[in-house]
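[job 0412] stage=complex_fold ligand=iron/sulfur cluster status=START
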Amino acid sequence: MKTFYIETFGCQMNAHDSEKVVGTLLQKGYTQVERPDEAELVLYNTCSIRDKAEQKVFSRLQQFKREAGNGKVFGVLGCVAQQEGERIFERAPHVSLVAGSASYTKLPELLVQVEGGNRRVTGLSLDTDQTFDTPFTQRDNPHRAYITIIEGCDKACAYCVVPFTRGPERSRTSESVLREASTLAGSGYSEIQLLGQNVNSYRDPSSSGWDFAQLLANTGNVPGIRRVRFTTSHPRDFVKDIVDAIDDNPVLCNHVHLPVQSGSSSVLSRMQRLYSRDQYMRRIEWMKNAKRNIAITTDIIVGFPGETESDFEQTLQLAEEVEYDSMFIFKYSKRPNTSALQFEDHIPEEEKTRRLMVLQERQRAIQIRRNAEFIGKSEEVLVEGYNVATRQWIGRTTQNKTLNFCDSNLPAPADGDTLVGRYAQVLVTRAGPNSLAGERLAPAVPGVQ
Ligand code: 5AD
Ligand code: SF4
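[job 0412] stage=complex_fold status=DONE, emitting structure tokens
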């Protein structure tokens, strides 16, 4: 069994876990293939944050069920694997491997068992103090790299499966994080994204005892690294030192994703979020008062059990007050094991949909306003690609906004000459709700690469 296919669902943590899983498999002599029908080992790295995400993997497993007979082996990894455990063998008997992310350090051993013909291999223990560190990570992007700094979550938000699927919090040493950043800089990566379910509760397990702000500041000083991002932040653990670190070093991108979930303190309290609306707004003020123009993005759940019309109004008001640069809005979805299951006053599906649409509409107007402020300004972008249909280069600003642009000197990639992976200075000339557009300033302009 030496060819494998992997499909990944869910968040950036999952995307990065898959990069490490792929690296581990390649190192064990496997070859990656692009289609499940070509593979001897088919892996799904799954997400269970909402019911829809969970259902996806079961429909995928159904799709390929018939092929299991001819020696094809299926494995379920990630959050659904952890959540459903051995029940997956009952629901999909052609699955041979079920492993949650807290067991990935044991992946080579688990693979040996699968290769040996064991048809029910599991890695489901959450009792671990280890992080999944491997030198064999096979990264998808040659310019931007994820680095995990903390795994797991010790919070207990009433709606959330993550503490049950990713185990307890455990931080990596700052030394290994900085070493990885340096190695990446040496191999041509210029942007780093520090990852964790809650990066703000990072605590260096080695003697330096750094907190997240210290780790962030030091990552920003790694030679060769031009941009550092981080995700995700929990407002309760978000301290002013993080804003100060961003103010002190332009290498640290001026974008903070700070999920609020609701604008109502009473909903926040029932969600067990551990902060009130006022406490959240204090953190927003730190960012609004910063020297740099920090983009703020968020996640919101509409229709949490018991959310009244007035609670929802408070969320709308909060969105107006903060003026988020972008927002992910989700309808509340019941998850196994979570404490919100015990609430009785569930909101009807149509009402959740209505609230989602109202908020989306408001947020769209806010984004149009926010983005229009960039017209006439010059922004540095990391060039990510070229869009053949629109004949524009695709760049990303430090605020994490997409900025599409034309370049009169290089209207399209030519003779191996491409801007992808390089930095360019772009004059913003137009703005929409979801992106900016502009023209590249001539490279001769001082201070421009
Ligand atoms: N229902 C809906 N949305 C959820 N999220 C987490 N759990 C649920 C759930 N049960 C959302 C939160 C979180 C984002 C990653 O997913 O907004 O920040
Ligand atoms: Fe999905 Fe959460 Fe697991 Fe990420 S950690 S894959 S969002 S359930």
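The chain is about 30% helix and 20% strand.
[job 0412] exit 0
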